[in-house]
Design brief:
By secondary structure, the chain is mostly beta strands. It has three domains: 85 residues, Immunoglobulin-like (Sandwich); 100 residues, Sandwich (Immunoglobulin-like), CATH 2.60.40; 146 residues, L,D-transpeptidase catalytic domain-like, CATH 2.40.440.10. It contains five helices and 27 strands. Strand 20 and strand 21 form a beta hairpin. It comes from Streptomyces sanyensis.
């Protein structure tokens, strides 16, 4: 400026320039305000809730409408092992249900397709404390949960099943799984459902009841050699009859050894041993005499004794015989049919005549010490579960429940 006075025109021009600059700054400021306002317009109170406005956020953040109900109630005691546990949801769908005992064992269950209920797949154990945790979601995806604890009843009366074969044993191809219960069962479906029998390699296995206290399982045909069979007894808490509960929760397994099926021809007085499908040995035998014939049919060796006592009085023959040292005896029936060594008949009897009281006799010596005797050989080459088939005897077929002899029942009848 150099201290020079400014002319009027210059002064006006300067004022106008400053005014235009101020206007531009004002416009920019207003533009900035408009831009900021425009960016935030989607969150205004007039926005639609479906666009994520405050209305939608308030619903999502609110309490869930889903209501979870668990029966029995929290803290309940003496709860029934079947039918009492129920989990349901209203105004929502169940998404997760966990039921565990104090050992961490989980109860398997299934949520219904509509999400309204959860059902256990099997009974509960007796005398057991359970924890239940259930979660449901309402229509807005909000979760609601509930937890309860209850204890099942303590049974006053119980039952178990005595089973064969033994855990870890190797048995023949004819061995069924046989369970004999200590109490008569009036709810067979509940008991059978709590028992699973599986095989490797896999094969269909079905159970059959003999009366109300025995349940056997087998495949349609003899087991294949080398099969591994596993049995799981989940009987703890099963009400087998009114007020009587199972108390077993265990598993056992056994292996099928080589295949051996021996056929006794009572008319030809021979026994042919077939091992793994090939004829292995033929032995001379004596079967039941005309008045005390041997049963026909498929029989399974269920017991083996190096020596045993045989008394006719125990099987309905009065005092006809009482032999205290019968060697190499193998049981074929509950009623007293055996394959055993015979040292009291002459050597010429075997292979030519039937003189026994219904058993299959093989030549032997008293004391059974001679390993070259047919009876000793057969005893040493047989295992529990091997099959002995008797044919051409003038007797009826053995009953399927007389021993482990369910193979004499047709498959269609077995599974009926």
């Amino acid at each position: 400026m150099n201290g020079q006075p400014v002319s009027g025109a210059s002064a006006r021009a300067g004022r106008e320039g400053r005014g235009r600059a101020a206007a531009r700054l004002t416009a920019l400021a207003l533009g900035a305000v408009l831009v900021l306002t425009g960016c935030g317009g989607g969150k205004s109170g007039t926005a639609d809730a479906g666009d994520g406005g405050p209305g939608a956020t308030a619903v999502a953040d609110g309490p869930s409408e889903a209501v979870v109900t668990i029966a029995p109630k929290d803290g309940a005691e003496a709860v029934a092992t079947t039918g009492a546990l129920k989990v349901t949801a209203r105004k929502g769908k169940l998404t997760a249900v966990t039921v565990q005992d104090d050992k961490g064992t989980t109860v398997d269950g299934r949520i219904a397709e509509d999400g309204a209920s959860w059902t256990p797949l099997h009974h509960l154990a007796a005398s057991t404390r359970y924890k239940v945790h259930a979660v449901a979601k309402d229509g807005q995806g909000r979760e609601s949960a509930k937890d309860t604890v209850f204890t099942t009843l303590v049974p006053q009366n119980t039952f178990i099943g005595h089973y064969t074969p033994e855990d870890g044993s190797t048995v023949g191809v004819g061995m069924p799984v046989s369970l004999n219960f200590t109490r008569g069962i009036t709810e067979p479906e509940a008991v059978e459902k709590a028992i699973t029998v599986t095989a490797d390699p896999e094969v269909p296995i079905e159970g059959h009841w003999f009366g109300n206290d025995r349940l056997d399982f087998r495949p349609e045909k003899y087991w294949a050699a080398g099969t591994k069979v596993t049995v799981r007894l989940n009987l703890d808490g099963v009400e087998g009859r009114p007020g009587v509960y199972g108390k077993q929760a265990k598993s056992f397994s056994f292996t099928i050894g080589r295949s051996q099926v021996s056929t006794v021809d009572a008319s030809a007085h021979t026994m042919t041993v077939v091992r793994d499908g090939k004829e292995f040995k033929t032995l001379p035998i004596t079967a039941g005499a005309p008045s005390t014939t041997t049963y026909n049919g498929q029989m399974v060796i269920s017991e083996k004794y190096e020596v045993t006592r045989m008394n006719g009085a125990t099987v309905g023959f009065g005092g006809e015989y009482d032999i205290k040292d019968v060697p190499h005896a193998m049981r074929l029936s509950t009623s007293g049919t055996f394959v055993h060594g015979n040292y009291w008949a002459s050597a010429g009897t075997f292979g030519s005549a039937n003189v026994s009281h219904g058993c299959v006799g093989l030549q032997d010596v008293r004391g059974g010490y001679d390993k070259d005797m047919p009876s000793a050989w057969f005893f040493d080459n047989s295992i529990i579960g091997d099959v002995v088939v008797v044919k051409n005897s003038k007797d009826k077929q053995i009953a399927p429940d007389n021993g482990l002899n369910g193979w004499n029942m047709p498959w269609a009848e077995w599974i009926a």
